[in-house]
Specification:
single chain; about 800 residues; alpha/beta; Aldehyde Dehydrogenase, Chain A, domain 1; Aldehyde Dehydrogenase, Chain A, domain 2; 3 domains; 10-stranded mixed sheet; 6-stranded mixed sheet; 29 helices; 32 strands; about 40% helix; oxidoreductase; oxidoreductase activity, acting on the aldehyde or oxo group of donors, NAD or NADP as acceptor; Ald_DH_C; Aldehyde_DH_dom
């Protein structure tokens, strides 16, 4: 073939990356890879192993140790032994170690990229140009946090020993996302890579050892799902960080319930890709290529749901189909391909099955007519158009190179369709009108939104989801907090057992007039409401004197309260100044009745007058604190290494159930409710079970303080029974529960249904008078989700 003919045809030829060094490295481990524990590679105690395969050919790639209980025990013991010494190192020393790891990644970048492409099946261009450089960036970035930890996180300490479980779609990048912040902040790690893609983790272990990382700081145990389950269930692990499917994340939430383990979950998604009629159509088409055909669509935040405005839908789809035809699917080490191999035959079968199901439900199938390599697991770029919002391909994560498309007419309809999902990980908005784009971005239920872009990532910008896409953030300052715990909570003692509910003692021979009966009602939707069951309970003083009655709330009362809270969504959109004013007004009105509330506390609890007055004064002060924070707890601007910014915007979680502690009946109630409403949440609160009258008195303060109906709802009754209802309720977005260890276990386990966020104390006592332990950023951070909105600019 002549040079002229090449110019005439402009056809691609193969441009293979050399795999000699990678194959040599594999050959050196032909006998099999062991676990990396306490700074050395060791075989499984059981001697068991399994094979890992090359997705592009189906051939055996390597033999890996299959971790069992003894291997996990050994890794955890090594991590525990090393943790205290690692945490005691000056931040500068840990920063030097992370810097060395970053430099080691850069020096061996090409080897890592080739091994990753062979092991995972993704194109070498992606591993070489994105995965490995971004992994190095994470270690550099978190070396900086280690250096300044003493000043930036002075009131926090490391969580301790961390178990981390990562998926197969970005094996090396996910390692960096999790290992870098954990090590930087003084934790030690046991990492369990995906069974399909463990090789770059083991290569990294070699590099880390060569870089001088102390033994036990990083441990890697390979294996299948059972190995991960052993890690999750291990009693001597302080935190689990998991990235993977929603189904497994739900099981982990249930398994760790009540264990006291910190937990972050980065799970599945079905991300919307919204194209308005004023968008740059060609730019948006290229965005789709990056959104769904990048990494063969095996991306948790893949923009797999295309929402296209009707006026440009035909043009958009025409250009998208034409662009699909130019995509090239081939061997991962070919530098000229756009898509490589699907991870494994089982995943390929799932993709094929779901596409057939979508067609049977009425979708129109379009697949690029391109040649696929023989052998291995390959699938062509695919578009399903005319999809209904309820179709399985519109609601379920396919995790393959399949885009599904539907149309909309108005921005309001686009928002409704975009949010019509149980997930909430990421979204893309395409419009040349920046005001429209930002307005829509603010209303999307997603942890990350890209404007006129997609799949942008950086170590300085937090990443994570809402709803069934999980909770917690990775990257940036917000990601650092996931690997820290408050100093004031270290060494907390178990809450002292509360005395049994005081019983009313009979009174005889008393000719005084009986008191006029008054049963405190529930407070729902801004109104006093009788309990659905018409049952009540008597509240007695420590001496057995009846001092009041409260309603016995039930499932229907919680349902009504949640409905009222949902209807008060305007509170989340109110100005921060307005919320601050109302909180100040609540404090002012409580101050006017301070003596009355102090008398009530003394009567219920038997506290001295001085202590009762001190609790009321502290409650008033706490309301002032959160009024002050209401218009000051603001977002930030990240400056990732690109032309653009990322806005880190704290958002209200939504409807939050609050189970108040049994002690400090007024201050405990205020300490939990105030930060939530200050940040725009609506609350369904269950007051102190033994001492609920401070809260039922408090609703008269709310009634006179301009608090909109439904913002605060109060349901009295059994803390554990009402907590069960709130935790299982799919329209409740989070539950805060302070009380017994059993209460924490129940709330965490039942919250797995819709993977709502939880904030519990595991039966540990909080000194509510201690401002460091009971107010401020510690609570505000848990009262919001941070949404990162990426805004590139320039040509």
């Amino acid at each position: 073939m002549t040079v002229a003919k090449h110019f005439d045809e402009m056809s691609y030829g193969p441009a293979p990356e050399s795999d000699i060094e990678a194959r040599d490295w594999l050959a050196r481990h032909a006998s099999g890879f062991g676990h990396f524990i306490n700074g050395a590679f060791v075989p499984s105690v059981s001697g068991k192993s399994f094979d890992t395969f090359e997705p592009a050919t189906g051939k055996v790639l390597a033999k890996l140790a299959n971790g069992g209980a003894a291997d996990v025990d050994n890794a955890v013991a090594a991590a525990r032994k090393a943790q205290a010494s690692w945490a005691r190192l000056p931040g500068h020393a840990r920063a030097r170690h992370l810097y060395a790891l970053a430099r080691m990644i850069q020096r061996h970048a090409r080897l890592i990229a080739v091994v990753e492409a062979i092991d995972n099946g993704k194109p070498i261009r992606e591993t070489r140009d994105l995965d490995v450089p971004l992994a190095a960036r994470h270690f550099y970035h978190h070396a900086g946090w280690a250096q300044i930890q003493d000043t930036e996180f002075a009131d926090h300490v490391p969580v301790g020993v961390v178990g981390q479980i990562i998926p197969w779609n970005f094996p090396f990048l996910m390692l960096a996302w999790k290992v870098a912040p954990a090590l930087a902040l003084g934790n030690t790690v046991i990492l369990k890579p995906a069974e399909f893609t463990s090789l770059t983790a083991l290569l990294f272990a070699e590099l880390a050892s060569a870089a001088g990382l102390p033994p036990g700081v990083l441990n890697i145990v390979t294996g299948e799902g059972e190995t991960g389950a052993l890690l999750v269930g291990h009693e001597d692990i302080d935190k689990i960080a998991f990235t993977g499917s929603t189904e497994v994340g739900r099981l982990i939430r249930e398994r760790t319930a009540g264990s006291g383990k910190s937990l972050t979950l980065e799970l599945g998604g079905k991300s919307p890709f919204v194209v308005f009629d004023d968008a740059d159509i060609d730019g948006a088409v290229e965005g789709v290529v990056d959104a769904i055909w990048f990494n063969q669509g095996q991306v948790c935040c893949a923009g797999s749901r295309l929402l296209v405005q009707e006026g440009v839908a035909d043009l958009f789809h025409e250009r998208l189909k034409r662009r699909m035809q130019t995509l090239r699917v081939g061997q991962p080490l070919d530098k000229c391909i756009d898509m490589g191999a699907i991870i494994a035959p089982v995943q390929l079968t799932r993709i094929e099955t779901l596409v057939k199901k979508g067609v049977s439900e009425g979708a129109t199938l379009h697949q690029a007519k391109i040649d696929l390599p023989k052998g291995g697991s390959f699938y062509p770029p695919t578009l399903l158009s005319g999809v209904q919002p309820t179709s399985i391909v519109a609601t379920e994560e396919i995790f393959g190179p399949v885009a599904v498309s539907m149309t909309f007419r108005t921005p309001e309809e686009a928002i409704q369709l975009a949010n019509h999902t149980r997930y909430g990980l990421a979204a893309s908005v395409w419009s040349e009108t920046i005001g429209l784009a930002l307005n829509v971005a603010a209303k999307l239920a997603a942890g990350v939104v890209w404007v006129n872009a997609t799949n942008l990532f950086d170590a300085a910008v937090g990443f994570g989801g809402k709803r069934e896409s999980g909770f917690g953030r990775e990257g940036g300052r917000e990601g650092c907090y996931e690997y820290l715990k408050p100093k004031t909570w270290v060494g907390r003692k178990a809450r002292a057992a509360m005395p049994a509910l005081s019983q009313v003692k009979p009174v005889a021979g008393d000719f005084a007039l009986p008191s006029i009966d008054r049963t405190a009602k529930l407070f729902i939707g801004g109104k006093q409401a009788r309990p659905d069951g018409n049952y009540s309970r008597v509240i007695a003083s420590p001496k057995g004197k009846a001092i009041g009655e409260v309603g016995e709330g039930n499932r229907k009362d919680i349902r009504n309260a949640v409905v009222a809270a949902q209807a008060a969504s305007a509170w989340s959109n109110a100005t921060t100044h307005n919320r601050a004013q109302i909180l100040y007004y609540i404090a002012e009105n409580l101050n006017g009745r301070a003596d009355e509330f102090a008398s009530r506390i003394a009567a219920m609890t038997g506290a001295s007058a001085a202590n009762a007055n001190a609790e009321v004064d502290a409650a008033i002060s706490r309301l002032f604190t959160y009024a002050a924070w209401a218009d000051k707890y603001e977002g930030g601007i990240h400056q990732p290494p690109l032309r653009g910014v990322a806005l880190a915007m704290p958002e209200a979680i939504g409807v939050v159930g609050v189970i108040c502690p049994p002690e400090a009946p007024l201050l405990g109630f205020i300490s939990l409710v105030a930060p939530l409403i200050a940040t725009g949440n609506r609350v369904v609160a269950v007051p102190s079970e033994p001492f609920p009258l401070s809260a039922t008195d408090f609703y008269s303060v709310l009634e006179t303080s301009d608090v909109p109906a439904g913002v605060v709802n109060i349901v009295t009754g059994s803390a554990i029974e009402l907590a069960k209802i709130l935790a299982a309720h799919n329209d409740v977005d989070a539950v805060w529960a302070f009380g017994s260890a059993e209460l924490s276990t129940v709330v965490e386990k039942l919250s797995s249904g819709n993977l709502k966020r939880t904030f519990v104390d595991n039966g540990k006592a909080t000194d509510w008078m201690d401002r460091a332990a009971a107010e401020g950023a510690l609570y505000l951070r848990r009262a919001v989700d941070v949404k990162n909105i990426w805004i590139p600019y320039g040509e």
